[in-house]
Design brief:
α4 links the parallel β5 and β6. α2 runs parallel beside α4. The strands form four sheets. Strands 1, 4, 5, 6, 9 and 12 form a six-stranded parallel beta sheet that branches. A two-stranded parallel sheet has the order 2-3. The protein is an alpha/beta fold and 343 residues long. Helices cover 42% and strands 15% of the residues. It folds into two domains: 228 residues, TIM Barrel; 89 residues, no CATH class. The protein is globular, with a radius of gyration of 21 Å.
Length: 343
């Protein structure tokens, strides 16, 4: 009886959930190293889609945007699925599952990374520092003319036992070792840099670690795969800049190049109009009013950020909030959605 009562209350919550939620995923894969919780296992992703199909109302980003433009009432419990960055598993693993559960999704691509034979810098940084291999005792870097130095000490050795013990570490948790603290410090130094400066730091780190380009653990989509993904009936392709930089750190001209350029490049590859955009990193400090104006000027009809929240009728179409989805069970996923709707 109690179970039936709980189920009835839950069903009422679904029916009266106000507004819409936009979910953000990155990779659908089993990942050994995942400091930023970017990977969701295929089994868990299938469970998430089953929950959406059963209890909510999956809708496309463009349909949600049209409702906001029209001022029409948002259907209770509406959910939009988005992916950022353009990992190859979006096509090979996520898309077949989206098709099976009849859920639409928007995939935002970093055009400069299409077909790249390397990983994004944050993925490679984790590989360099948090995989079990020795490193030199001292690290010295020059970033924008400022000298940085770290003494690794005992942390120059990092074996399989350390890796196994700390493999589930997340960047929001206390650092369990000097290597993890170094990873976080370097991430914070690299993230606001220009693409050229980021490449320079990564070249220096690669040389210091004694590694050349490491075969990517998380391969990115190539041109042919982008076209194939765009042709799936439930997939919309959106733009995510050329180089995945924090746009607020750039000049106005550079912001224009990143935003206009990503749209132009994608439309040339796909031979179709690209209407949706998402801000790299997507926090308030990563874009500014000038960025939003450029996105509108470029001809996009909607843009997503990474601030958490519910979409309501008055929500800015060019600053739509999204909620990050980690690797979690169906029950936890369902609870996350309901807690957001009723926060």
């Amino acid at each position: 009886m109690k179970n039936l009562l709980r189920k009835g209350i839950r069903n009422l919550k679904y029916q009266f959930a106000r507004g819409a939620l936009i979910l953000i995923y990155h990779r659908i894969s089993e990942s050994a190293l995942d400091p930023w919780s970017l990977s969701v296992s295929p089994n868990h992703f299938a469970e998430h889609l089953a929950v959406l199909q059963r209890s909510f109302h999956p809708t496309s980003l463009q349909d949600l945007a049209q409702s906001l433009r029209d001022g029409s009432k948002l259907r209770s419990g509406s959910i939009v699925i988005t992916f950022d960055d353009g990992y190859a598993d979006n096509l090979h693993i996520a898309q077949p599952l989206l098709e099976r559960f009849d859920c639409p999704a928007t995939v935002f691509l970093v055009t400069g990374a299409i077909g790249a034979q390397y990983e994004f810098w944050w993925d490679e940084l984790a590989t360099l520092l948090l995989q079990p291999h020795p490193l030199p005792e001292r690290l010295e870097l020059s970033i924008h003319g400022e000298a940085y130095s770290w003494q690794l000490g005992k942390a120059e050795e990092y074996g399989q036992a350390d890796y196994s013990r700390y493999r589930n570490w997340r960047a929001g948790q206390p650092s369990p070792s000097f290597r993890h603290d170094l990873y976080r410090q370097l991430w914070q130094l690299i993230q606001p840099l220009s693409t050229e400066a980021q490449n320079g730091v990564m070249d220096a780190l690669r040389a210091w670690a004694g590694d050349s380009r490491i075969p990517p653990a998380h391969r990115l989509l190539n041109r042919e795969e982008c076209i194939e993904l765009s042709q799936a009936k439930q997939i919309e392709i959106g733009a995510h800049t050329i180089n995945h930089v924090s746009l607020a750190s750039l000049s106005g001209d550079s912001q224009c190049s990143e935003i206009f350029g990503s749209k132009t490049q994608l439309e040339k590859i796909l031979n179709e109009q690209v209407k949706s955009f998402s801000y790299p990193f997507g926090k308030r400090e990563d874009y500014n009013p000038e960025t939003v104006a450029v996105v509108q000027e470029a001809g996009f009809s909607v843009a997503c950020c990474n601030e958490s929240g519910v979409v309501h009728r008055a929500t800015d179409l060019f600053q739509l909030p999204r909620i990050h989805i980690p690797d979690c069970s169906a029950a936890e996923f369902e609870n996350r959605l309901l807690s957001k709707f009723y926060a």
